[in-house]
Amino acid sequence: MSLPLTPSDGHSSNQDSAPVYSDREVSFRAHRPTLRLKLLATVAVLAIATFSILPNYFTGGWIWNAPAALPQASQLNRLQAEGLTLPGWQTLEQQTVSISGSKWSVQAIQPDLGAAEVEGSDGEGATPVLNTGSDRPVLVMLRPQVWHLEQPQVEWMDINGAQRWTADHHERIFLSRDVGDDSVLAGLHLNSGLSDRSISFSARYFRGWSRQQTYAVVQWYAWTTGGSPAVSQWFWVDQWKQLRDRQRMPWVAVSVLVPIKPLGNIDTVRTIAESLSRTIQSTLVGDVFTESS
Fold first, then answer.
1. Per mean pLDDT, which range of 24-28, 145-149, 197-201, 227-231 is the poorest?
2. Which residue range(s) make up the domain with 41?
3. Domain count for the chain
4. What CA dihedral angle connects 86, 91, 96 and 98, to 10 degrees?
5. Contacts of 143 by beta carbon, 8 Å cutoff, 6+ apart
6. Is residue 68 in some structural domain?
7. What's the average model confidence in pLDDT over 136-146?
8. Which helix (H) or strand (E) holds 157?
9. Do 49 and 84 share a structural domain?
10. Residue 106 and residue 82: Cα distance in Å, rounded?
11. Domain boundary among 62, 82, 103
12. What's the pLDDT at 134?
């Protein structure tokens, strides 16, 4: 039996002729003016960007064709040659080492017992006593940008190849450094226009082990306003810095190696690894990334 082509009993032709909309269609029609405004705003922003950028591109004034020189070049070169002076830590030895064609500052450090607290204390800003089950010092490896066209690329692969270790127990850690009690960092933070009171960054945290030694390893790229182990994070910060200030965002690749027992648990040194990483980040921001006068 075929379906009737005429309205069924109880329905008028006027009712059938009226359009019927689903809830989704009604919602879409209600928000159509808002969508139009957002589209117009997007088109306006793109138009402004196009008219401001294209003339520079065709006249040779494209800012990425000739990036500004690093204002921190002298500090970065000194870091590569001399390493980093870390409050609460004593440098036992420092040397510049070539790894896969790149120069790294490698320094062996240990806590300055005169500034260290009793082990187990959680005092903020203090250096815990190192108790890792190993008599070897902590290694801090720093690879600074020393030329304005240098970009971070394969630093972690270079380190892995040089150490010839097996890496496991990977995780991401998120750290922040309060700048309220640091006049240098506080001044830099206020000048940057940031409203919060800390410099946040993230890092890779994993175990690297070989037949000779096992380490808890922390790695990240540090820059003025933060840090991340991902190159892409630095890339976007650098692009914005160039667009806004016509300057590069300098970076330093950081690799911290905390010795532990053979195939030991990296959680046993998590506190010291995180504390040292925060100290390195804040020292880089306060002593290296500041512009020379």
1. 24-28
2. 1-62
3. 2
4. -90
5. 80, 102, 103, 104, 105, 155, 252, 253, 255
6. no
7. 95
8. helix 155-163
9. no
10. 9
11. 62
12. 62
CA pair distance 171, 287, nearest whole angstrom: 29
What is the rounded CA–CA span in Å between residue 138 and residue 92?
Answer: 10
String of b and e for 86-121 (b: at least 16 CB within 10 Å)?
bebbebeebeeeebeebbbbbbbbebeeeebeeeee
Does residue 263 sit in helix, strand or coil?
A: coil
Find the mean pLDDT for residues 65-94. Answer: 87
Would you state the structure tokens that stand for residue 17, as one six-digit string?
Answer: 């002729």
Alpha carbons 30 and 45: distance in angstroms, whole number: 25
What confidence score (pLDDT) does residue 48 get?
A: 58
- Cα–Cα nearest to 213, from 277, 261, 142: 261
Three-state secondary-structure class, residue 169: strand
Structure tokens at 151: 């970009």
Is there a single domain that holds both residue 44 and residue 153?
A: no
What is the mean pLDDT of the segment spanning 254-282?
A: 96
CA–CA gap between residue 94 and residue 81 (Å, rounded)? 9
Band of pLDDT at residue 293, cut at 50, 70 and 90: very low
DSSP-assigned letter for residue 118: P
Q: Is-contact 143 253, C-beta < 8 A?
A: yes
Q: What is the mean pLDDT of the chain?
A: 77
Please report which residue ranges of 59-132 form alpha helices under DSSP H: 73-82
Contact 199, 179 (CB under 8 A): yes
The tokens describing 18, both together, are: 């009226």
* 3 state SS of 181: coil
